[in-house]
Amino acid sequence: MILADFIPQTTLLQLPNDMNDINPTDELTKLSTTSSSDIQTAEKEPYLISPIKIPLTSFQPLLAASPDFILTNECTRRRNRLVLIDNQLQTIEQRIPKTDALLDAIWYEKKQQFLLRTVSSIFSYDAITGNMKLIQGFTPTENKEMKCFNFLNSSVLLVAYDEWNAQYIEKWQQDDTDENWKLTDKLPLNLTNNEFIGNMITVIENDCSYIVITIYNDLLEHWRLEIRPIETFLCVKAIILPGSNPTYDYKILSLQDNVSNIKFLVYSSQNSNIIAIDSHWEKILLNYKYPVQRMVLFSKNQWII
What we know:
By secondary structure, this protein is mainly β.
């Protein structure tokens, strides 16, 4: 895992040429849109990213961040534990109950907890107490396997299932009285028989909420990015993504309020290419030394890879 200071004002991200024992990346640069003036500006500030390498071993890596902690894990044949890293880069290791493989994690701002997902269950995890328990009231529809989940806002959880021809994304909300989760709505996804959903995030633009979704089409053999306003949930913008492998889902990282002119990054563990989507919905190709499994932002100015 790489922890790096992230400078929002820059248009070129550049690593120092000599990092001695710490050499986790090549330069991360805009390959297609960087101008000579941008390069000159960046050369004046050669340490725009200061990486710190934190070794971790995991067959199924998790990565999420709260205002105070980075949550990741060590998952091997002999070891299964969560690893918390605080603002001072101190680590706390916590063993967890035996469950199905943990596949994803997100921060639940309202309850100040992490939510951890398996294919069929969601757990809450308190980073302070170490308490991990199954959330109450949530049951996957028709015993389907979950593909991804994310928050629409501070209290509404979106859930999508791992299936071809998916017709909807579910909205779940926790009751303030009994704290049980209840299915409140279904957003019409209406994919074809040749399509399935990869991942999704929520983006706020001019006080309007949008859901950004990656979708694979087997007939056309390509991935695409769809932007859908939550009000109508109709696609208002589609962006074709490179690559045709359905095994490696694209993941999305929102950079709003952190990097001017860049809305979010799209990446896959299949290759080292990272795609930035700017404010004009144009693609900017970035390059990284290794394929990236997960990325999150921590404390608004640190980029966790």
